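Quick log. Single chain, no ligands specified.
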Amino acid sequence: MSSNYSRDFAVFATMGRLNMYFLNPAALTSEIAILAGGLSSRMGRDKSRLRLGRRTLLGHVRATAERLRLPVRMIRKDLVPRCGPLGGIYTALKTSRQQVILFLPCDTPFVPLALLEKLLNSLRLDDAGVFVVTHKKVSFPFLLRRNCLSVVEKQLAKRQYSLQALAGALRAKEILLSPDEGMDLFNVNTPQEWEIARKRWFGPECHAR
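-> predicted structure:
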């Protein structure tokens, strides 16, 4: 066993964070960025502050993210506004001091810790990024290396703001999710989706949180 590997393993052990994905050295230089700078135009009010049980939507996402014990940042104001999620992605990459960023939206209160661990453990040295795929489209959450910034800048210049276009430009790795995993990524954009989330949260199958 190499001295570097032993040192890294010892660091993780002392931090009490022994999970499968921590064997990936990328976790040493990673952070989490939660994007909360959108206009919430379809909701008609700031969806990040909607309260579901004891926490807001943003609070639920943050609580799950913090269980990874990596640095967590909120991106509330995009450096390039009105560009959809690409504005927040650009802002996080531009201002990050870490090498790898795990991106989460503020409106997926059911996102499971296991999926975030799976993502972090999937990144290899030759991967520019890793996206999950659900309903035949790439989606949050996803990983990007900070050196993807130049590609994001080109996408902004071309006004190609979608995650699909970004994943294609990066030739990013894609992880196909099962239907159950896809259900856990349910996001809240409209009043109708908010009511669905509330029914799911307070339904008999939901655990108290």
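The CA atoms of residues 63 and 201 lie 16 Å apart.
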